[in-house]
Write the structure tokens for this entry.
Amino acid sequence: MNTDFEELYQQVILDHSKRPRNYGTLEEPAIHVDGDNPSCGDEIHLHVRFGAGGEVEDLKFTGVGCAISQASASLMTLKVKGKSRTESQALLEAFTDVVTSGSQEPPKMLGDLRLLSGVRNFPQRVKCAMLAWRAFEQAMQEAQTGPVQASESGPHCS
Ligand code: ZN
């Protein structure tokens, strides 16, 4: 990591964690997904409204937790808002690749999200960076198939 990169990383992460964009909730009809990361205490509550063609009409989140989890959520909402299903799926896959395997240069389409590529060296932080994206992935699934039923994989534990 060179110094310029580190400086920019600090600036962007701090800015987004202190002043998160698209912070709040959406009126119905919207899909609501809660995500949490127990190891770090991060929580994300994501609301997404999809259009008839599966495009991301609007999305907002609330949450608490570390700077990386909140900044990643804020950056994600800016990036996927208004995108088609295919485009948002591609962003999800590209970001997942960058923070998990990240063998290649992060693609330009990720914009400032590329700054989070450094978390790949810190397995605990990968979960923080991915939290909002996992919630978004689940929202996309629910948009297609309806709410994910836990009972599909067997009866609930009691
Ligand atoms: Zn965290």
About this structure: The mean pLDDT is 91. The two ends are 48 Å apart (CA to CA). DSSP finds four helices and three strands in the chain. Strands lie at 31-37, 42-50, 56-64.
